[in-house]
TrEMBL record:
It comes from the Bacteria. This is ABC-type phosphonate transport system, ATPase component. The lineage of its organism: Bacteria, Bacillati, Bacillota, Clostridia, Eubacteriales. Residues 11-237 form the ABC transporter domain. PROSITE patterns: ABC_TRANSPORTER_2. Keywords: ATP-binding, Nucleotide-binding. Belongs to the ABC transporter superfamily. It holds the Pfam family ABC_tran. PANTHER family: ALPHA-D-RIBOSE 1-METHYLPHOSPHONATE 5-TRIPHOSPHATE SYNTHASE SUBUNIT PHNL (PTHR42798:SF7), LIPOPROTEIN-RELEASING SYSTEM ATP-BINDING PROTEIN LOLD (PTHR42798). InterPro entries: AAA+_ATPase (IPR003593), ABC_transporter-like_ATP-bd (IPR003439), P-loop_NTPase (IPR027417). It comes from Clostridium pasteurianum BC1. The keyword Nucleotide-binding applies. One of its GO terms (molecular function) is ATP hydrolysis activity. Gene3D superfamilies: P-loop containing nucleotide triphosphate hydrolases. The keyword Magnesium does not apply.
Amino acid sequence: MKVGDRVEQLLKIENLYKTFTIHNLGKHIKASQNINISLNKGEFIGITGKSGSGKSTILKCIYRTYTTDEGSIWYESKKFGLINILDISERQMLYLRKYEIGYVSQFLNSMPRTTAKEIVEHSVLEMGYSKEYASQEAEKMLGHFEFDRELWDSYPNNFSGGEKLRLNIAMAMVKHPRLLLLDEPTASLDNYSKEKVKELIKQLKIEGTTMIGIFHDIDFMEGLCDKKYNMQAGEFI
């Protein structure tokens, strides 16, 4: 990626390879190979494929919870300018996760003895906003997903799978990130809750958020995605 490419592109993945080694078996598993993605600002890319085809690996490499074997992940940061995510320091990566890049996984990892409202508030507070503003934004987001008010001050460890997933989405979307990575965001949601997620995705697109989403639900993607990719055995087909 060249400096002149920065005008429209927010993210560009070039020749990404990621393998996993099972040491006791002496095996190498190709999770993702020869991945090339160009993502313009405000675009939404959807990736489909069977479980185990390597879809989530791409998102985890972008978020740098996985290291890579080969390739580059170019990102235009608001603070750092054009950077290769694979080469920046851990401190810079932590900054990006805090202020610029959001990640929605299928699983909720929350702090113990922290209420649902406090979890969403924390996402806003860590960006430097006031307690009052964080509380207002948390209430808006919890209201959008129609959490019963009695759940706002409850601990999520007692929530259903669908409720935990909705809370996960609320935590990421309340920050209005520049780049949002969605790893099966509707996996355990009913149709009504899926529509609530779709409404927020559409709103984020209007605001200019750039997104990559992994979905099994092909119907959900209709009308949302600017580009679609299908993965099989770690490669786009």
